[in-house]
UniProtKB/TrEMBL annotation:
Family per similarity comment: Belongs to the binding-protein-dependent transport system permease family. FecCD subfamily.
Organism: Kocuria carniphila
Localization in the cell: Cell membrane
Name listed for the protein in its UniProt record: Iron ABC transporter permease
UniProt keyword Cell membrane, yes or no: yes
CDD domains: TM_ABC_iron-siderophores_like (cd06550)
Membrane topology label: Multi-pass membrane protein
TM region positions: 36-54, 88-105, 117-135, 141-162, 218-239, 259-289, 301-321, 327-348
Record-linked Gene3D superfamilies: ABC transporter involved in vitamin B12 uptake, BtuC
InterPro entries xref list: ABC_BtuC-like, ABC_transptr_permease_BtuC
Source lineage: Bacteria, Bacillati, Actinomycetota, Actinomycetes, Micrococcales
The entry's keywords: Cell membrane, Membrane, Transmembrane, Transmembrane helix, Transport
Length: 355
């Protein structure tokens, strides 16, 4: 009896210690996430300033402030308002779209290789846009609508080909990769049959570029984000729960299939809107979420992927515009060169984990 009485106080003493450890771990994780968020915001601010003010034509800080205030007359006014500022703002907005699209794909499919560009969604939008540009002679909002339609049609075809709503995740990813290859072949076929000038415009769009950034494009992407970001925020807790697996998420009260389909549809809209303006910029959607997870120790959230996507676009555009004297490369060239090693790294790491 005395042993029983002495055991109870021990259990009562150890229980609060365990709970306190859990709370302390959560506090440390939250502090780390806040530090990463703050660091990404500061990095994006510094890189955006460098993209606006530091280039072939350097704008001093007092002049930049005067230009933004509307009280400056001179060449810096044109450089900032017509060239560097719209490119930077459009790069941030489209980077947010690509980053969120990649995060949603990889989270609900639980596969770091399941991104919109790897699974062909970006190329579905690209094929529809190329047809609209080369064969239909369309531009502006018509290309945006065509991109949305192409991305949704390809995603629907991939889901149906993989087995419908009960498709296995691995089969879904492989089917998406195959669909991307077929879509690329279709794009090449359309380009070879098109007028050379129309094909040149379409090819520049396919590479992904911020060279022709316009304020009207910024308004289009901005309006889309105003509508889509609240939906993404509402869906975020369920999407994060699905990262632990379907059974665990279902046990937490998540309706797995509707959430998966809704998240994929939302990701398609994010990517299609961005691609309709700047083209299917390679690997930004693919790289953003893994980099965010690496910075946060595996707990990368949606806003981390969005900030990384924006940072990738701004930095890549600066490198593309300023790395080679006298040559302005499309931003897609730089992101493709940076994305290939990341893809190889993920493939090697995944192979080691499965061996």
């Amino acid at each position: 009896m005395s042993q029983t009485l002495t055991a109870r106080p021990v259990a009562a003493q150890t229980a609060p210690t365990t709970v306190e450890k859990v709370h302390d771990g959560r506090r440390r994780t939250n502090r780390k996430l806040r530090r990463v968020t703050l660091g990404l915001c500061m990095a994006l601010l510094v890189c955006s300033f460098a993209r606006i003010a530091l280039g072939k034509y350097v704008v001093a800080v007092p002049d930049l402030i005067s230009v933004l205030a509307g009280s400056y007359e001179g060449p810096a006014n044109y450089i900032v308002w017509d060239v560097t500022l719209p490119r930077t703002v459009l790069g941030i907005l489209t980077g947010v779209c690509f980053g969120l699209g990649g995060h949603l794909f990889q989270r609900v499919l639980r596969n770091p290789l399941a991104s919109p560009d790897i699974m062909g969604v970006s190329f579905g939008a690209g094929l529809a846009a190329v047809v609209a540009i080369t064969l239909g002679g369309l531009s502006g909002a018509a290309v945006t609508v065509s991109s949305l339609a192409g991305a949704f049609l390809l995603m629907a075809a991939v889901i149906l080909a993989a087995g419908g709503t009960r498709a296995n995740i691995g089969r879904l990813v492989l089917t998406g990769v195959a669909a991307g290859s077929l879509t690329t072949a279709g794009i090449n076929g359309v380009l070879t049959r098109s007028d050379i000038y129309a094909a040149q415009d379409a090819l520049q769009w396919l590479t992904g570029s911020l060279n022709s950034a316009r304020w009207s494009d910024i308004g289009l992407v901005g309006i889309a984000l105003i509508v889509l970001l609240p939906l993404c925020a509402l869906l975020a807790p369920s999407v994060d729960a699905m990262g632990t697996g379907d059974q665990m998420a279902s046990g937490l009260g998540v309706r797995v299939l509707p959430v998966r389909l809704t998240a994929l549809a939302l990701a398609v809209v994010f990517v299609a809107v961005a691609a309709s303006v700047v083209g299917p910029v390679a690997f930004v959607a693919f790289m953003a979420a893994p980099i965010a997870r690496g910075l946060t120790g595996g707990a990368g959230l949606a806003h981390h992927a969005a900030l990384v996507g924006a940072l990738l676009m701004v930095v890549s555009d600066y490198i593309a515009a300023e790395a080679l004297p006298g040559i302005a490369l499309p931003v897609g060239v730089v992101t493709a060169a940076a994305g290939a090693p990341v893809l190889l790294w993920l493939l090697i790491g995944r192979g080691k984990a499965e061996s």
